[in-house]
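Appendix B. Raw example, untouched.
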Amino acid sequence: MVQADVRAVLPPPAWIRDFQTDDYPALAELSNAVDPDRPTTEAELRHDDEVYKGGPFLHHRYVATDPTSRELLGEGSYFHIPWSFSPERFGVWFAVRPDRQGGGIGRLLYLRVLADLERLGARQIRTWTQESRSEAFGFLFRRGFEPLTWTWESRLDVAAFRITEFADRWAIPAGIEITTLAAETAKDPEALHEMYELDCELAVDVPRHDPFTPPGFELYRHQLLESPRAMPDAHFLAKDGDRYVGVSDLERLDALPGVLHTGFTGVRREYRGRGIAFALKLRAIDYAIRHGIREIRTGNSTLNAPMLGINERLGFVKQPMWINFGKEIEG
């Protein structure tokens, strides 16, 4: 009986409260401590949140703080997925500072997020982690999450790349022009609407568990032109006359100088098999070489054999896979 009374008055491992805007610096520190191989910045975090403001998609974040010092120890967030939207489907994300993992903080965050999702009528939850993170695997499996899809991350050593070895793949089919987002919007700002139409058509063919839904033009524009990651001069487009038929873009990672990320590569169905995607990828690598970039990273579904084949021929080296998890919530 005495032992039970002592346990009853023990303080919780953390206090859970709503996220506040002045938490962004500490949130960036937390994210980088949890995943130092993929660091982020306060500006990137702010932008990622801003795309939800004033739109139809919900987004909310809780933070866990030390009961004594008020130091930020973890986060738990839920959000609609704009490119695979259903009002009953939410993405979730949990992170706890490495030196405080295993003490119940993640559980508190999960319970708070789950309570909100049940109140909102959620029926499906989606999240992700890398296959090398056994502690995250255990956290998700114990809560009923199941693997849905797998994605290879691959990396290219730009300094070791010999672009002359691909001289025969640099050429593009007759009638096709390769240009950039910067050049096209300088000529005609309204061209962005046609690029959005291209992006939506290509996204339908990307292997995924949940069906693609258009995210909305304003969100698309915000990402392409206002994101800290945006690089309009490294956003390559293939054109057939006035029609955009292919794309391959690079994104900067401010917390990783010398590293770029391939955002999306694709070609319209009727133009595939003609070397356009390969030529676009070579333009992106050439850009990286000319600007002193040391590494390009990209991600591809394990079901996307054509793009995986292109990346392998270019010398991209596979890293541990990322796994997308899902959980069904009963009414």
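End of appendix B.
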